[in-house]
Amino acid sequence: MNRTLILRTGLPFALLLLANGAAAQDELIERGRTVYADWCAICHAPGEGATRILEERYQGALPAVVDQRTDLAEELIVARVRTWVAPQMPPFRQSEVSDADLEAVIAYLKRNDE
Amino acid sequence: MPLPPGLTESDFSDLLAEFRQAVGSGYVYSSDEHLQGYRDGVSPLYQTDQEPVPSAAVAPANVEEVQQVIQIANRYRVPFWVNSTGKNFGYGGPAGVVNGTVNLDLKRMNRILEVNEANAYALVEPGVSFFEMYRYLRERNIKLWLDVPSPGWGSIIGNTIEYGLGYTDQGQRVNFLCGMEVVLPNGEVMRTGQGAIPGGVSWQHYRRSIGPRIDELFCQTNYGVVTKMGIWLRPEPPAYLACSIMTDRNEKIIPLIDTMRPLRLGGIINNNATLYRFPFVQEGEENPDNPGGWNNRVAFYGLEGVVKQHWEHVQDAYNDAMPGTTFASNLYTTPYDLDSLGRSPDRLMAGIPSLGSSLHKTYFSMALPFDGQAAWDLILLLDEASKRHGRRYFGMAHHVETPHEMVTTSSALLRPGDDEYNQTTMRMIRDWIVSTGEKGLGPYRVSTPYMDDAMAQFSFNNHRLLRFYEELKDVIDPNGIMAPGKNGIWPRHMRENRA
């Protein structure tokens, strides 16, 4: 937030900006939820292939459904989406999941981070 | 990443600038990071010095941009490989055969142009996946069913023109395509069938024009980029009965197939009935006490009374031929709650897409007569070859596409980063291709590293068929730029590359 702008325009406008920022973040998360449903959930929804693999790997130590995680680093999400994860997960190209889509997915997956 | 064959750094830079001009700067990719998704991480060649790596990728949004990209590629004599959604894993994924090929990525062309519920067809672009079409139909409560392959993230066009199979009564899906729009390798647009008439109203109804039907010239070949395709769908049936016919012994595949043949020929069984080993046996987990039997998945679609009667007849036929066979079935009727099928295997025969096939297998698939002994002989032949190479193969399934033939899909495991293991797997698959060819059997579909080996089996009269394909190639694609090496078809100036 630009401090000079707050001083010049007064608190109400600053609160409005904050509210707009929160609304924009909510919008980004919702967009990320849609991208996740379209691209990720086919394998990462409860009961689907990747979830079953992760259930076996984590043995309850971590949630196997990816969008229930609260500890995913942004770098890890980007790496998983953009590079091959042998032997199971192919990368997704820009023509499929654009950088803007990826930013939204990151916001969605980190929405509940502590 | 490599340069395209024959281009200098400066030429390549000019080429990318022209591509950017054609499709927009955001849709031309040449960095290592952006090109990861255009490599085949499921190839036995992945990350070896033999891996064909793309030099760049370009993603047009419409047919005019495809034309421009191809015209540019012609000017620079740059080879390009086409992918629709790039999910053809096990058969090559999005990657080409030649190192430095430019990848033409059609995913942005993802419009469902028309769905005609009354006449049960759709007209789609190549970027439309089975998942996307399924969602489109369900969200609009359109009462049409779609035939889908087992991994549903692939392209309807891409999978169909690679002769991909589904599991419904439209399982040999290529026979349900109706009308194409194709950008030829010189950049011209052509429409097939009734689409060749300006404003042709029967394009998705009648499959021919006057003269030969040529749609299959664009299947498993490198003669043109399919930018639109009509596909016939099936009306939601009043009842759907999903059935399993289960045996307990490997050898019972012979009577299982021979009992099914007259039922399939006679129109009692109409779907792409699939036979697979159950339980699946993974490498290193073989149990000699329980080698597994064969499970035959069959579906009936129609009036409830009729599908039940057909199923009773089928059970009687199997009980007569194979006492001790066990059966299971699930009946679904309108109004359907398709979501209730969950992860049930019944969903594939209802055309509900899913994922679940594990990656890191390389596939080898054969065409066979509809004959139990032929299937058994093939099992013995593949078993013998796998023992010679010390590699277990698995996942073998027989798909009864039509009343007259079956195709089998076999796969072998790869180990990421283990070049010696993967090289042995490749040698085994090449051995399979040659051994089956010597028995008069040919592949139906293979992965990119084996395309020359597969085509070499079709050698009657000094490879006359391949020479015919390449004579066509030289006429249709005189600069030899489209998908060189696809299924063993090479342009004149690259034929020395043939493996």
Structural class of chain B: alpha+beta
Average of pLDDT of chain A? 86
Question: Any idea what the shape of chain A is?
Answer: elongated
Widest sheet of chain B: strand order? 15-12-14-13-17-18-16-19
State the domain count of chain A: 1
Q: So how many helices of chain A?
A: 5
Report the β-strand fraction of chain B as a percent range: 15-25%
Based on CA atoms alone, the radius of gyration of chain B comes out at 23 Å
User: N- to C-terminal separation of chain B?
Assistant: 23 Å
CATH fold topology of the largest domain in chain B = Uridine Diphospho-n-acetylenolpyruvylglucosamine Reductase, domain 3
User: What would the CATH topology of chain A be?
Assistant: Cytochrome Bc1 Complex, Chain D, domain 2
Q: Unreliable runs of chain A, pLDDT <50, ≥5 residues?
A: 1-7
Which SSEs are present, and which pair or pack?
The complex is a heterodimer of chains A (114) and B (499).
Chain A (H helix, E strand, L loop, with lengths): L2 H7 L1 H34 L4 H10 L15 H9 L16 H11 L5
Helix pairs in contact in A: 1-2, 2-5
Chain B lengths: L8 H15 L4 E2 L2 H4 L20 E3 L4 H14 L3 E4 L18 E4 L6 E5 L4 E4 L5 H10 L4 E2 L10 H6 L15 E7 L5 E3 L33 E8 L1 E2 L3 E8 L6 H13 L7 E6 L14 E10 L1 H18 L4 E8 L12 H4 L11 E9 L2 H18 L3 E10 L2 E9 L5 H20 L3 E5 L4 H6 L3 H17 L23
Parallel strand pairs in B: 2-4, 3-4
Antiparallel strand pairs in B: 1-2, 5-6, 6-10, 7-11, 8-9, 8-10, 12-14, 12-15, 13-14, 13-17, 16-18, 16-19, 17-18
Helix pairs in contact in B: 1-3, 6-7, 6-9, 9-10
